[in-house]
Amino acid sequence: MKKPWAGIHKGYGKKLVSIHAWNAWLVLLLTISGLLLVGGFWREVLGEGRVWLKWAHIAVGLVLLIPVVYYLLLAAKHWKRLAGKSSQKANVVFVLVLLVGWILSGLVLWQFRLAGPKAANAALLIHDLLTWIGLPVIIYHSITRTKWLKEPQKRSIRPEPNTAGEKAPGEVGRSHPDSSGPQPVYSRRGFIKITVGAGLAVTLGPTFVRWIGKSLQLPGTADYLADNANRLLPEPVPSAKSFPPIGGGAEGNFRVYTVTDIPAFDNTNWSFTIDGLVDKKLVWNWEQFVQLQREVQVSDFHCVTGWSVYKNTWEGIPLSKLLDMAGVQTKAVMVKLYSGDGVYTDSLTLDQARMEDIMVAVMHDGKPIPNQLGGPVRLITPQMYAYKSVKWLNRIELIEEEHIGYWEQRGYDIDAWIPGAKRV
Fold this sequence. Notes:
The protein is an alpha+beta fold and 424 residues long. The protein contains 13 helices and ten strands. It has helices at residues 2-9, 12-38, 40-46, 49-63, 65-81, 86-110, 112-115, 117-149, 152-155, 188-215, 286-289, 319-326, 350-353, and strands spanning 271-276, 282-285, 295-302, 308-318, 334-339, 345-349, 359-364, 367-368, 378-380, 393-399. A hairpin with a 2-residue loop joins β7 and β8. The longest helix has 33 residues, at 117-149. It is elongated, with a radius of gyration of 28 Å.
């Protein structure tokens, strides 16, 4: 059993250098790809490429396990080399905790269907926290240690001289580096500031540019994080169950994702249509639609990327009642859903569409749904991930063939059930 371990430990110093180098590159790739994945602007720009980037991010995260596991095989020897160096030991523990926490939270997000929404929500919070706090430290540690460990004296044991001023046993031929220790090119604080600043520039920079462009009325600069830009009158009046919210108010925060610029509507450019294989084509303008009798439900909202918002109070019309109003013909098998952005579509089977909690929502927690969150009207599918909950919903078509939605064409599951869903 000693020979295999001896092979692993042979050339320990050079292996430690390689581990730090690989770790630095892998973490850098994960940082860049992760920031691109969470940025709303980049989600829109990447389109289908985001799915491939997501899988590349997962693949690189799995590859990161290799240098981490390899280091753990060398950890005992490395720990001995750090005898008497409490600050360096603390640094190693700190970096390992960050790496392991990041990898474990990433694995939960990768297998979110098995983990369930609550575990995935916690994992996403940890993952985000480590992205902004841990990754700059890890990159700094890996880059600086790679440089320092190329110097042989940094990898050797530095025993204390004996009281007689003679070299300790095994000390012959070894030089002692300067007691001040290695000096990095950048201070840790400076490196962290630069890295966090670069991350903010990548993720928030495009949003800031859009805001400046809109303020200066430059072309092609859509409103991304402003107040509700919909101007539809009259505003819907919440029912007594909806305001104050019977669920007590939503718990959590929505993240704004979209594949196009966020549209805005007023009374002149908004209508709602049900057509296709129906007995009666229905078309409402806003004044007519807002008069339809609404119901209230409390449900959780789960995004496929790992976050959730709990106890939302939605007010709207059950999809099944709208289908009954139009009269579904026997040839119809699917319900195709259109977004008012003119690009996004998705679909439900007739059985799914008739689930009692599938709602065409008009209000959230007693207020009109803002355009950033898919208003004035959006679909709510509590038992399914939110890519089925079409934003800016303005048309429902009954069709007799299967329809593959926007994200399903790009690798997502056609049936978007969350773990433990009440499936039909």
